[in-house]
Amino acid sequence: MSTPEKRQTITDPAALDALAHPIRLDLLSFLMSNGPATASDCARAVDDSPSNCSYHLRVLAKHGLVEAAASDDGRERPWRATITGLSLDLDSDDPSMVAGATAALEASVQLDYQLAREHIRHRDRLAAPWRDVDAHAQYGLRVTPEELRSIVERIDAIVRPYIGATRHDAPADAAVANLSLLAFPRPTFGGASR
Questions:
Q1: SS3 for 87?
Q2: Strands of the chain, DSSP E
Q3: Alpha helix (H) ranges present in 86-169?
Q4: For residue range 64-93, what is the model confidence (pLDDT) as tens digits?
Q5: Which secondary-structure segment (H or E) carries 57?
Q6: What is the pTM of this model?
Q7: Architecture of domain 7-189 in CATH?
């Protein structure tokens, strides 16, 4: 069983500016993957203070990316993501949108590498089955733009059924895992500008 995807292309320059902050991206990702959580839960997940997370959650809420969720006991204030994924328009005709999307993408890449470095530093604390499946793979491909698009689309099709925000049939021993994909030409190697 899964939840329908609600992937949103962010086009509002103010929302893009809000997403250019790594903690906000981390909070949004956490809520999308784990479901509703309080600012204190979020703080433990992203290694920040509850008051700072509360501030950043309010900023995300201002742009419609998160919202207050129902509380079981009426005392806690959980937040939930309103989207299951996001896209950025890096090819817009609007220079301010491209600048905002670029800043948000740079923050996302920064967060990915921060998470990878933290994983490497704390890898010895993981259970052996998780250490056995972690991976870092880098491939130097020789491809056309169409071939690279096809590769990315096929990987996306494989991964999509496992996205935390939409998957509700995960086994009891499942945990949130991070999978990043970067695909781009290496202009300094020649051929990408042709």
A1: strand
A2: 7-10, 66-68, 79-81, 85-88
A3: 95-122, 128-133, 145-159
A4: 999 999 887 777 899 999 999 999 999 999
A5: helix 50-62
A6: 0.85
A7: Orthogonal Bundle (1.10)
